[in-house]
Fold:
Amino acid sequence: MRSSRCPAAWARWKKSARSTPGASWACHAKPCGLLDIAGYYQPLLQMLDNAVAAGFLRAAHREAVLSDEDPAALLDRFAMYRPTFADKWLTRQTT
Structure:
């Protein structure tokens, strides 16, 4: 039984977080899409941007997380998405 303290959004976040390593390991080239109604996912997107700025996440991997408030625009972003592959690990020389 799911705890009432664990909202459904957390379960979705855990599921999408499990798919992110596959993209960074070049197992697939599919983006992740977030329908950001009323800015719901802005804290998550800001966390990802901060991770890029701090060197914990490559910009190429961050770009695979697409978001938009409009479903049609999000689908258009999926259609225009072209994956960029980067090395798996950051090193002192690349940060």
User: Anything to note?
Assistant: The beta strands are 32-35, 65-68. DSSP finds four helices and two strands in the chain. Helices lie at 8-24, 42-54, 59-62, 71-80. The mean pLDDT is 77.
